[in-house]
User: Fold this.
Amino acid sequence: MLVISATAAWRSAHAGAIIGLLELSGLENAQASPELDARKRETEAALRERYQGFSRKDFLALPVMSAYERYYRRFNKTYHVQLQVESIVGKGKSLPNVSPLVDANFVAEVETLVLTAGHDAAKLEGPLSLDVSRDDDEMTQMNGVKKAIRAGDMVMRDARGVCCSILYGQDSRSPISAGTSHALYVAYAPAGVGAEAVEAQLGRIEANIRPFSPRAVVEQHRLVQA
Assistant:
């Protein structure tokens, strides 16, 4: 089990925030999952029915979406899960096909609206800390581009530096790949999202994984609150 703690700086800077941790081992990720593919189509249809006729204003009135919008607005950015849901509902877009362990999270995200990163636990160098970004922080993003991280963002660090940021996503070192058998999902929830939504997110990720990894072992499932 990975050792993960929260810093005093994070608790002070992001009072009311919650970070959900779901660590699973014994996973399979090399083969497509027909059950998960069916779940994607069901989710897309349910979203289109639930949000039929919604404007952007309507989406931003949803409590969870509103909490993220407030967080992102502090940095003059738009919540990307909001854009994904809007594209599924209003443009007929489909959920992506990356790999079962990645897609299991995507399906849950558009249902709960809770931002979650997925890491290959074997590629993280502990101990891990939930922290707030500083002026000199930077990270190489998944696309290979080195990015300076704005101060004040919620981040996770390992022994080699920042490995995830709410605003800029995950690093290039630790993403889930076809060979991943041990994964860490980290749900980042600013103040206003609430524990119930984060618990729902972690539960749905695991439920989406069970059909193709029935022998997965839960190493940890917990919430860290600021």
In short: Residues 4-225 form a domain with the Phenylalanyl-tRNA Synthetase; Chain B, domain 3 fold (CATH 3.50.40.10). The longest helix spans residues 34-50. The chain has one domain: 4-225. The chain has seven helices and eleven strands.
